[in-house]
Design goal:
mainly alpha, 66 residues, single chain, 86% helix
Length: 66
């Protein structure tokens, strides 16, 4: 495995390459967790938000034309 790491690192030191890759991976995991949490919130509120949007569209459709 270290041979592969060294090959991928190229001129970069092994430790800095591993640190950079791990930082990227951990950042990706954090973003995925945030996205999952946001999606859960949106899904919980979807019914209420859709009802509000439907109500607004209903008002707009019933306005008399000028």
């Amino acid at each position: 495995m270290l041979e592969q790491v060294d090959r991928l690192a190229g001129e970069e030191s092994r430790s800095s390459f591993i640190e950079r890759v791990l930082r990227g991976y951990l950042g990706q995991r954090a973003r995925a967790a945030t996205n999952a949490r946001d999606l859960k919130r949106l899904n919980r509120a979807a019914g209420r938000l859709n009802a509000e949007a439907s109500e607004v569209l209903g008002y707009q459709a019933s306005w008399p034309e000028e």
